Amino acid sequence: MLLWSLAFGLLPLSTIGIYLKLCKTRVDGPKISLLKLLRTMPTSASANLETGQMYHYGNFSEDFLWGVSSSAYQIEGGWNVDGKGPSVWDTFTQRPGSGIPEDGVGNIACDSYNRLDEDLYMLRAMNVKSYRFSLSWSRIFPNGRRASLNQKGVDYYNRLINGLLALKITPMVTIYHWDLPQALQDEGGWEKAEMIDIFNDYCDFCFATFGDRVKFWMTMNDPQGIAWLGYGTGKIPPNIKKPGTAPYQVAHNLIKAHATAYHTYDDKYRSSQKGVVSIALNAEWVEPKDITVPREITAADRAMQFQVGWFAHPIFKNGDYPEAMKAQVLVKSELQGLSESRLPSFTEEEKNLIKGTADMFCVNHYTTRIVTHITVSFGIRRLLNWIKEEYGDPDIYVTENSVSTPRDWAWDEIDRVFFHKTYIDEALKAYELDGVKVKGYATYLMDSFQFLYGYIFGFGLHHVDFNNPNRPRSPKFSAHAYYNIVKNNGFPRTEDETMLYGQFKEGMFWSSATASYQVNINVYCLSIWDKFTHTPGKISQHDTGDFACNSYNKLDDDIAALKKLQVSHYRFSISWPRVMPDGTTKYINQAGLDYYNKVVDALIAANIQPQVTLYHWDLPQALQDVGGWENETIIERFKDYADVMFKNLGPKVKLWITFNEPDRPDTLPYIVSHNIIKSHAEAWHVYNDKYRASQNGKVAITVNSDWAEPRNPYKQEDYEAARSVVEFYLGWYVHPIFNGDYSPHVKRSVLEQSLFTPEEIKRINGTYDYFGLNHYCSVLAFPVDFGTTQHYEADSDRTWIESGSSWLKMTPFGLRRLLRFIKEEYRNPPIVITENGVSENGPVDLNDVHRKYYYEQYINQVLKAYLIDGVNIIGYTAWSLLDNLEWAVGYTERFGLFYVNRSDPDFTRTPKASVSYYSSIIRCNGFPNPADGPHECWNPNLVVKLCVSFFHSNKRAH
Q: Catalytic center at which residues (predicted)?
């Protein structure tokens, strides 16, 4: 409307000037500290890995105050007993039509007024060092003034404070947490300047009465909420809706009331009581959507100044409001035709009174805002750094931090566990990495009355049964998790995260991999993937495998890439329709056979041994047209195909894989998996009966498996779910091959009885020469009931580093545990890791630090499995050699060690940073100990020397 009016000249020039002035205030540069934070504290996984691990392991100081928190109205109950007067919240919640869900009131709440012993028991069990609670003003002074003193209220808080001290728990006391006595509100509440002296007298009494034992005071909690929600939007008591003026006047009085109380403590009690006083401010972090846009940075800074700076700037800086806030309110006041700003001014005397009236910075933090409301943990680190830069590096106490979960999630609330792990870890980064003086942290002790939300959400570590008159308290999963964080004083590095130095056995082979359809142009006959990728709507029109990486015509380039990696082996797959266009022996395509002989010969000439996969998902379309893997005749077709390949390539190939990732049966009919297992067994017997004696090779199947951990380690059902996930992922195919039949768990859960005849069991059992394993990540498992059946779902921990694929989180520990499981379950077979790797997406970045990290951590877990656990590891394969077609996601997710420029007609291959890193591990055959001094195998210059030597030898050869 404003721009429309400008266009038609409907606004006076003075208003246009004000508008331009307003625009200018929006583009003025923010503090350097905000820009510094945005530019130096990355949030993406790869960016964080540039400067260290995304999840930080370490400890807070020994005197760090781990605590829990509550507030009087939310937990005490006893609203009208023993002489207590009503507060504005008592009045509001009991008024019909308050809008609180289920007509919730705090009349009883957690009944802490009558259940002090239960609260103290919880605190002792948590082993916390501090407990933040608030005093009910109207329980001590029923009408808000000293003359109405209620001794029973004083006695209650004396019992609480003495009980805490007996447990060696520091009381952190908030004098005023939103529950103003109704009698004072009836006189005008915080809109009246007289409240300053009334509040000071109340504080004076508290200091005098409890200060001999209380050494940590907060005058008030979240004054911004009182001012804006109470007097602006009217959402909370006293429900006054005067957004233009009242919030600013109320805040003005609150700031002066705090400052006056601070000076009362300073003048009368500090020298004898030796305590500290502050104010608890609520602070979200505001993140600009695009840090390259000055207007967005300025807007974010202005939001921080209006939210935090409104109270913090006067108290911690110069006794006055932030300049951005004063300018913004002034301009909008002028636009409204007002003669002066709606924001009151402090006199010089008041500025001097207010400045410096806090001994530490107490902050409540719950979330970060990025255009829309998103909970992101990195915001607390940025907020703590912003407070450090903005307010002179004060001591900081996080006095509230938690997340709400639905009431139905009473005990198994994984979201709160993730929340605490990520938020506390970001606070630890601020403390250890950034030098922020973080001194304490507190979260909610128990579920309580959540003001406008009543009891429908829980913020606490303990569940309270509000339907039970005894209000029993029960620890949740998060209570156990938080207890361990407190016990460990942070996140000490575990054995999983500690590097092991050593080498693999002599003869360990190192490899990289591709698959036929993913890298090769298909010039002969259709596979099911050719048909799929050319079906409209299935995949991007540019993401077919028609040319892929053009490896069919770029063999020399692929061999050069493998040489640069210095691998001893190369895993690739045969295109079944390239050799047998209709999937049968009716016609053998000699050109296809010649191509694969050429590949094998080129590898051997480069001293690289071929690992050949017979079937990597690309079934001839002709076989699919007659039923594919659901048609039992395919067993004979696959046996014939394997026979042809063994006969033609077997004299030069010593490592065979029948099937790559036949996949889990919950995504395909059981008969398909049944036929695949029998096809594998028949192919193995063909090799064993006809070729093994002369060719002396090895044949196996490769399965893909995640590792699964229980989502809640305190629930037996989750352990059983984790076991089931591995049984179904890994055991569905492996158990018959290694033990002759489906596992008892699979038969009990799904099949009820074996699908194999006794003769088939005998023929399948033992059809392996090694164990082929593809592994990428781990999951958290938990059970889900579907009526009469139970299903198992998987989740991921938010602390796990992300990748370019939504399903792939970096979880190195899982690989070692999976290898150990295979050893114990299947009699320690020789294991070849046939795929392991990580993806990226978005703009191409050859400095793929996340992939280097992935290989370092995963291969080190393999080394631990070999050296410590005695797992029989004989080979490792990195997926993938090239950025190739990643099936249904096309080329958007890139796993390659080499970038392939598909816009270049030559399909040029460019090594990423991970190439030199992986080749160093290969040269070292593991990880040399840095304590032994620099090892030549880890010297990047050696790679250059080898490449130069290779270049000269090739030049001489030509």
A: 835 (nucleophile)
Of 435, 459, 492, which one is at a domain's C-terminal end?
Answer: 492
- Separation CA 766–CA 435 (nearest Å): 59
Both tokens of residue 391? Answer: 């307010």
Determine the pLDDT at residue 755: 79
| Residue tagged 């009919």 (tokens) | 669
Domain identity same for 468 and 518: no
Residues 6+ apart with CB under 8 A from 319: 346, 350, 351, 352, 353, 354, 355
CA–CA distance, 665 with 728 (Å, rounded to integer): 8
Tokens of 489: 């004083």
- Give the residue among 370, 475, 365, 354 at the shortest CA–CA distance from 420: 365
Strand 926-927 versus strand 502-503 pairing type: antiparallel
* Burial tier of 468 (Cβ tally within 10 Å: 0-12, 13-18, 19+): exposed
Count of domains observed in the chain: 2
Clarify whether residues 480 and 523 are in a common domain: no
Give how far the C-alpha of residue 158 lies from the chain's centroid of Cα atoms, to the nearest Å.
42
Query: Do residues 435 and 573 both lie within one domain?
Result: no
Q: What pTM did the predictor assign?
A: 0.88
Residue 592 and residue 588: Cα distance in Å, rounded?
A: 8
Shared domain for 363 and 505, answered yes or no, is no
| Peptide bond before residue 880 is cis, with ω within 30 degrees of 0 | yes
Residue 187: CATH number of its domain: 3.20.20.80
Residue 534 and residue 477 share a domain: no
Handedness of CA 355, 358, 359, 360 (dihedral sign): negative
Distance in angstroms (rounded) separating the CA atoms of residues 535 and 298: 48
What pLDDT does 535 receive?
A: 59
Domain range enclosing 393: 2-492
Backbone angles phi, psi at 292, to 5 degrees: -90, -5
Residue 393 scores a pLDDT above 90: yes
Instruction: State residue 213's pLDDT score.
Output: 98
| DSSP β-bridge partners for residue 173 | 133, 217
Distance CA 195, CA 188 (A): 9
Helices 294-304, 32-40: crossing angle, 10 deg rounding: 110
3-state secondary structure 260-310: HHHHHHHHHCHHHHCCEEEEEEECCEECCCCCCCHHHHHHHHHHHHHHHHH
pLDDT in the model for residue 51: 41
For CA atoms 386, 390, 396, 400, give the dihedral sign: negative
Query: Does residue 479 sit in the same domain as residue 583?
Result: no
Tell me how far apart the alpha carbons of residues 481 and 474 are, in angstroms, rounded to a whole number. Answer: 14
Q: Say how many residues make up the chain.
A: 958
Residue closest to 390 by CA, chosen among 323, 294, 296? 323
Same domain for 471 and 568, yes or no, is no
Residue 512 sits in the same domain as residue 413: no
Three-state SS letters, 414-452: HHHHHHHHHHHHHHHHHHHCCCCCEEEEEEECECCCCHH
Among this protein's residues, is 835 annotated catalytic? yes
**Residue 330, domain member (yes or no):** yes
Q: Which residue out of 835, 840, 886, 893 is catalytically annotated?
A: 835
Q: Going by DSSP bridges, is the β-strand pair 130-134/65-69 parallel, antiparallel, or unpaired?
A: parallel
For residues 232 and 243, what is the distance between their CA atoms, to the nearest angstrom?
4
Let me know if residue 435 belongs to a domain.
yes
The answer to whether the Cα torsion of 81, 85, 86, 88 is positive or negative is: negative
Residue whose structure tokens are 């907020």: 383
Mean pLDDT, rounded, of the chain: 89
Q: Report the first-to-last Cα separation within the chain, whole angstroms.
A: 76
HEC readout, 879-910: ECCECCCCHHHCCCCECCCEEECCCCCCCCEE
Last residue of a domain, one of 438, 464, 492: 492
Give alpha helix (H) positions in 787-848: 812-825
Would 324 be classed as within a structural domain?
A: yes
Query: What is the mean pLDDT of the segment spanning 555-581?
Result: 96
pLDDT at 833: 98
Closest CA to 142 of 202, 191, 219: 202
- The answer as to whether 198 is a domain residue is yes
Which two three-digit tokens encode residue 104? 């919730």
